[in-house]
Amino acid sequence: MLQKIEILNFKLENGKVLTKTPLFYQTFGQPIGNAPIVIVNHALTGNSYVTGENGWWNDLIGIDKIIDTNNFTIIAFDIPGNGFDGNPENLITNYKDFTAKDIASIFLEGINVLKIESVFALIGGSLGGGIAWEMANLQPDKFQNLIPIATDWKASDWVIANVLVQDQILNNSDNPIVDARLHAMLLYRTPQSFKKKFNRNKKADLNDFQIENWLVNHGLKLQNRFKLAAYKLMNHLLKTIDITKETNDFAVSARKISANIHIVSVDTDYFFIPDENRETFEILEPIKQNVFYHEIKSIHGHDAFLIEFDQLAQILEPIFNKQKHQNYVNA
């Protein structure tokens, strides 16, 4: 069930003040205070509905799943303005006012309102993982485990470039959400993934290739779920990820994070490329003992974190081991 927290007089990174910010969220599993807390940050087109009927991470979160709702309290916040409450325009006047750090700060405000002192795991994929990096940087002792998946602690030049292309489409196309989604899916999948799925097959009784129909349908589905203002905001946030704004030095910023850091990349990711994550691990390994690198092997590219559930479950299982927490008692 969607719940709401009102955050008053929130100051954005650019200095503007939001008098009232609605933060929507959902909880799953055990009541708050009865079990270890897991915060799940959704990706660009996701929302707080992480498990249950049509939950987007049902393969990982639920009864007897890796993140077991019998043993954990799962909390998922909606990025303010994502429109999951049906009213993105209530918040967005200028989508470029917001940064990933602002969203991270708003989420942390929500955690404080819920009186949560410690979080067992903070996990997120893509944009959600970038926001997770920002949250851990802002409150480095709040989280026991930081698990950023198919993401990075900063927007690379490649990400920034593609955000610009998306922004241009969203502001200049006659059919902005559909057209932007067509382009985005070419970043989220790979040529090998498309070949395996479609193999140049055509739609029955039509001259259209199946890949064309699939892409257009993806665009139309997103258009039905997203308002333009919300999609512009989500896209823009990607290019603002950067935990080094204060230090200009990743090692300095990341060293203070006390959490175990589990970096999960995808070997064929064309968006948040694995080379960047390997470089991050190489920087951290000499200065931080509790940092770990994991890599999903897949032909599917960036979206593998939403497809390769068996591999992701194997990576996460040692972190979310049921036996470790079955006798949890709130202090």
Automatic annotation (TrEMBL):
Keywords: Transferase
GO biological process: homoserine metabolic process; methionine biosynthetic process
UniProt-listed Gene3D superfamilies: alpha/beta hydrolase
Keyword Transferase: yes
A molecular-function term among this protein's GO annotations: homoserine O-acetyltransferase activity
Domain AB hydrolase-1 intervals: 36-158
Active site as annotated: S126, D269, H302
InterPro entries named among the record's database cross-references: AB_hydrolase_1 (IPR000073), AB_hydrolase_fold (IPR029058), HAT_MetX-like (IPR008220)
Keyword check for Transferase: yes
Name of protein: Homoserine acetyltransferase
Annotated organism of origin: Flavobacterium aquatile LMG 4008 = ATCC 11947
